[in-house]
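Why Nitrogen fixation NifU-like protein? Reviewers of the renewal asked for a concrete example.
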Amino acid sequence: MSFPNLDALYRTVIMDHYKNPRNKGILEDSSVTIHMNNPTCGDRIQLQLTIKDGKVSDARFDGEGCSISLSSASMMTQSIKGKDLKEALEMSETFSEMVQGKEYSTEHDLGDIEALQGVAKFPARIKCATLAWKALEKGIEENQK
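Here is what the prediction returned.
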């Protein structure tokens, strides 16, 4: 069953985050900076995290890419602020499952991020959607070393 109004709403949310990205810019006091790219399509991201007391106290991104990649980064940085590292990693796993069309946990409220669930219909775009989240995972891993 198709929900055209829901699809239109999701497109609107994605385009809003693409045209008006949240948390785009540079952090002066970041704990970790991760550079990643998707060589398949040319998307690139620089993710900066400030981690204090085991929590993401701030997150910013910069880069270039498609609407899926940059809106995902905007939504991700917005959603992980204030989260402890374990919860941020769990959200990343949930997001990955969602965009691959798998059953995913509803333990965490994904909010606007659910607008990206349609990416599952376009396998070539999954890497675009997960680029910022992979950077998050790498950043947390580097911070814990």
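The beta strands are 32-38, 43-52, 55-64. This is the kind of structural detail the renewal will allow us to pursue systematically.
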